[in-house]
Write a structure and sequence with these properties.
five-stranded antiparallel sheet, 189 residues, 1 helix, Immunoglobulin-like, 11 strands, six-stranded mixed sheet, single chain
């Protein structure tokens, strides 16, 4: 009888260990806890674009060729990041480049790293505390792409088919868990 129990118990133990191993592997993939100790710093320069030239444009040379010097971007709106799910700080700027394109710039960003972080341009209000954690995918929003790094200065080009005036905030959004790490209200400059 003792031998029968050993034979029956061994498959149960092995099965339980296999299930535990699968659950642990899935949990590690889903949460990616090692990212909490990994920082990715990005140091992108302020974006520039050459202004389009016209015959009356003072940036053209006497020969009529466009000047090679890029124009300084114009800040249309800006805001300070506040913390939501994770401590987050830095400045957000909505810039119009000389060629008429738009870029969202994160400056001095400092937040936690995490799985599937994105930069969202949204029409949602920025709320302090837990009330602001889940609102940024409720209304109108545009994902500007994956967060390039959890620290530093970085630029995100806006798609040409959107109107920047339709959006009032920016969120560092964890797409995996549908939660904001931090957000900023965009105020007209």
């Amino acid at each position: 009888m003792g031998r029968v129990r050993t034979v029956l118990t061994r498959p149960l133990v092995l099965g339980a260990l296999a299930v535990l191993l699968v659950v642990a592997g899935a949990g590690l993939y889903w949460f990616q806890p090692w990212k909490l100790w990994q920082d990715e710093t990005v140091r992108e320069a302020l974006p520039t674009a050459a202004a389009p030239s016209s015959p009356s444009d003072p940036s053209t040379s006497p020969s009529g060729e466009a000047s090679a010097s890029p124009a300084t971007p114009q800040t249309l709106a800006s805001g300070e990041l506040i913390s939501h799910e994770h401590p987050t700080s830095g400045t957000v700027k909505l810039l119009r480049l000389a060629d008429g394109s738009y870029t969202l710039r994160l400056e001095s960003l400092d937040t936690s790293n995490g799985p599937d972080l994105r930069v969202l341009l949204t029409d949602a209000p920025v709320k302090e505390g837990r009330d602001g954690w889940h609102v940024f995918d409720d209304g109108k929003y545009v994902s500007l792409g994956k967060l390039k790094g959890n620290k530093g200065d970085q630029n995100y080009a806006l798609p040409s088919d959107i109107k920047p005036a339709d959006f009032t905030s920016v969120s560092i959004w964890c797409d995996r868990f549908d939660v904001s790490f931090g957000a900023a209200e965009l105020r007209q400059a």
